[in-house]
Automatic annotation (TrEMBL):
PANTHER family attached to this UniProt entry: 6-PYRUVOYL TETRAHYDROBIOPTERIN SYNTHASE (PTHR12589:SF7), PYRUVOYL TETRAHYDROBIOPTERIN SYNTHASE (PTHR12589)
Protein name, UniProt field: 6-carboxy-5,6,7,8-tetrahydropterin synthase
Keyword tRNA-binding on entry: no
Record family assignment: Belongs to the PTPS family. QueD subfamily.
Catalytic activity of the protein: 7,8-dihydroneopterin 3'-triphosphate + H2O = 6-carboxy-5,6,7,8-tetrahydropterin + triphosphate + acetaldehyde + 2 H(+)
């Protein structure tokens, strides 16, 4: 059986590797649809609240109203220096690759899987008209990719 749950969060990002409007700092109201594979144990499989209890805090504490940032983006070090100099704490979600919707899907899939949930796939909505569908097979392939410096996501310390 598959249970579907949807979530939303706001985050800023930029893709420093592009030479178009997306290289500028901007934000999105992201939509996340999770497709959980579950097995019935008696009269029900899983309470919907069991998903929310773990995923909503993940999104609220690490993504919502934060900035997705690639470690190789020159802006990353500038932001770290700013935080050190001023004592300001910015919510930075650190990526080992550019902050594309594909890499965001990889990051979210990894974190949700680490919580013990079995995902069939996720959909990440970047705009009203742009949605990425990301499957378990996509995630397995990304984890096997030797160019990845991490398969387990991290959060910047001290920010």
């Amino acid at each position: 059986m598959v249970i579907e749950k949807e979530y939303k969060f706001y985050a800023a990002h930029r893709n420093e590797q592009l030479e178009d409007k997306c290289s500028n700092l901007h934000g999105h109201r992201y939509g996340l649809k999770c497709l959980f594979e579950v097995e019935r144990n008696g009269s029900y499989t899983t309470l919907f609240g069991d998903f929310d209890a773990k995923i909503e805090p993940l999104l609220k504490n690490n993504y919502d109203h934060g900035m997705l940032i690639h470690t190789a983006d020159p802006l990353y070090q500038t932001l770290l220096d700013h935080c050190e100099r001023t004592g300001e704490k910015l919510r930075l979600k650190v990526f080992d690759a550019p902050t594309t919707v594909e890499n965001l899907a990889f990051m979210l899939f990894s974190e949700i899987t680490e919580m013990g949930f079995r995902l069939v796939g996720i959909e990440v909505r970047e705009t009203d008209t742009s949605v990425l569908q990301y499957s378990r097979e996509d995630w397995v392939a990304d984890c096997r990719d030797r160019s990845r410096t991490q398969c387990k996501p991290t959060v910047a310390k001290g920010t």
